[in-house]
Recover the amino acids of this structure.
C-alpha cells in the first residue's frame, strides 16, 4: 500500500529529504508564513488603522476555529497557552469541600495538575488508572459521582495516541451533571474535534495546527460561562470604553464571550499565523486529513508490529489518531540516533511516538522501519 502526502514537503521550511514524524512534539512551519509576517509587520507600523486590520484577521481566525471544531466562532477565545484553559475552570468555579475532579493518570501535566490549588479547599483529584496503557471510558464514567464538578481529559493522549470517545463521555457528563473539559492539543488539526460536545475545549497551536507557541484557541460553552466566574481582568474583558472614557469608576460590567476570557491583547501576530495555517487545513478538509492520519497510523502499527515492537496505541480505527506509540528501551538515544539519519521522532519515558500528518506518506514510514531493524 502506498499513501502519498496531502501536502508537498516543499511547502514547509527545512523538511525536504527529512522524514518528519514528530508533529506531536513540534509541527513544521509553512514557507508561506513569511508573507504573513510581512503583512503583520506592515500593519504594525500603520498605527490605529493597521491595528484594526490585524484584529480583523483575529476575528476571521475565530471563525475558522469555530468551523474546524463545529462551534460558533463567537465562543472561541485566544489564551496564551492550553494550560490556561483548564486553569480558567479551576479558578472560576464555586468549589466546595467534598467536590472532586475526574481525570486520568496518563494525562499531560497541564490537565492532570490544573486542579492542584483546589486540594487545600478539600477538593479531591481522582486519577483513573490506565489498563495496559488504555484508558477506558467506562472507568472514567464510573469515577464520576454526584460531587464531581469536572471531567477533564485530553481528546488524544500525548503518551499513547489514544483518541477518547467524546460522545460517550459527553453524554455521561450531562447525565451526571458535571462539566466536561477537553484538551484537544493532539487532535485539533488532524482529527475531527466535536467541541460542541464539551463545556471547554482548548488546544495548543504549535503541533497539529502547524503554527507556533503563544496562542491557544479555547471554546467555552454557555453552560460553563454561566457557572464560571472570571478571575483575571483588564481593559479587554471589561466594558471600560467608551463608557468610562479617561476616568475609572467604582463598578464596571464584564464583557461576554469571547472577550470574557481575554483580559488583555491576545498574541495577534501568532493568531495571524494560525489563521493562515487554518486556511490551508480547512481547504484540505477535516475528514480527508483524519482519514489520511488514521490510514498512516494503521500502516505504522502494522510495520512496527512486524518488527516485534509492543504497541501502546489502540488498533481500532475510531480510537486512532495521528500519534502511534511503541515501547522501546533507551528511547531518547534511539531518537537521537535516527535524527542523524534525518528521521525526526519524539521519544522519552520508555516509548517513542510516531506522528503522521499532512506532509507524511508511507515513504517516511518505510525509512523509519528500515532504520529500526537494528533495534528490534
Amino acid at each position: 500500500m502506498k499513501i502519498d502526502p496531502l501536502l508537498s514537503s516543499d511547502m514547509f521550511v527545512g523538511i525536504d529529504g527529512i522524514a518528519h514524524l514528530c508533529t506531536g512534539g513540534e509541527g513544521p512551519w509553512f514557507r508561506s508564513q513569511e508573507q504573513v509576517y510581512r503583512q503583520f509587520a506592515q500593519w504594525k507600523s500603520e498605527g490605529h488603522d493597521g491595528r484594526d486590520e490585524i484584529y480583523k484577521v483575529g476575528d476571521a481566525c475565530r471563525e475558522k476555529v469555530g468551523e474546524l471544531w463545529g462551534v460558533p466562532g463567537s465562543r472561541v477565545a485566544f489564551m496564551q497557552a492550553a494550560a490556561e484553559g483548564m486553569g480558567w475552570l479551576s479558578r472560576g468555579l464555586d468549589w466546595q469541600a467534598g467536590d472532586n475532579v475526574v481525570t486520568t493518570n496518563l494525562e499531560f501535566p497541564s490537565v492532570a495538575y490544573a486542579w492542584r490549588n483546589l486540594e487545600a479547599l478539600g477538593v479531591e483529584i481522582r486519577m483513573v488508572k490506565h489498563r495496559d496503557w488504555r484508558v477506558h471510558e467506562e472507568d472514567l464514567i464510573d469515577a464520576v459521582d454526584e460531587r464531581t464538578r469536572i471531567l477533564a481529559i485530553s481528546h488524544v493522549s500525548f503518551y499513547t495516541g489514544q483518541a477518547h470517545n467524546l460522545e460517550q463521555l459527553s453524554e455521561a457528563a450531562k447525565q451526571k451533571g458535571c462539566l466536561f473539559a477537553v484538551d484537544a492539543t493532539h487532535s485539533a488539526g488532524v482529527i475531527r474535534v466535536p467541541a460542541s460536545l464539551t463545556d471547554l475545549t482548548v488546544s495548543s497551536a504549535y503541533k497539529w495546527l502547524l503554527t507556533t507557541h503563544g496562542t491557544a484557541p479555547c471554546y467555552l460553552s454557555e453552560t460553563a460561562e454561566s457557572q464560571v466566574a472570571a478571575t483575571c481582568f483588564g481593559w479587554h474583558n471589561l466594558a471600560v470604553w467608551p463608557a468610562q472614557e479617561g476616568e475609572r469608576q467604582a463598578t464596571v460590567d464584564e464583557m461576554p464571550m469571547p472577550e470574557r476570557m481575554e483580559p488583555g491583547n491576545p498574541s495577534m501576530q501568532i493568531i495571524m499565523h494560525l489563521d493562515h495555517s487554518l486556511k490551508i487545513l480547512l481547504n484540505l478538509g477535516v475528514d480527508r486529513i483524519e482519514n489520511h492520519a488514521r490510514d498512516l497510523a494503521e500502516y505504522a502499527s502494522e510495520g512496527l508490529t512486524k518488527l516485534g515492537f509492543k504497541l501502546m496505541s489502540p488498533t481500532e480505527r475510531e480510537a486512532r489518531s495521528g500519534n502511534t506509540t511503541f515501547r522501546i528501551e533507551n528511547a531518547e538515544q534511539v531518537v537521537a540516533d535516527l535524527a542523524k539519519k534525518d528521521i525526526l521522532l519524539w521519544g522519552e519515558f520508555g516509548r517513542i511516538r510516531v506522528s503522521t500528518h499532512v506532509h507524511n506518506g508511507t515513504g517516511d514510514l518505510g525509512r523509519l522501519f528500515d532504520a529500526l531493524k537494528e533495534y528490534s
Remarks:
- The chain has two domains: 9-31+285-375, 37-282.
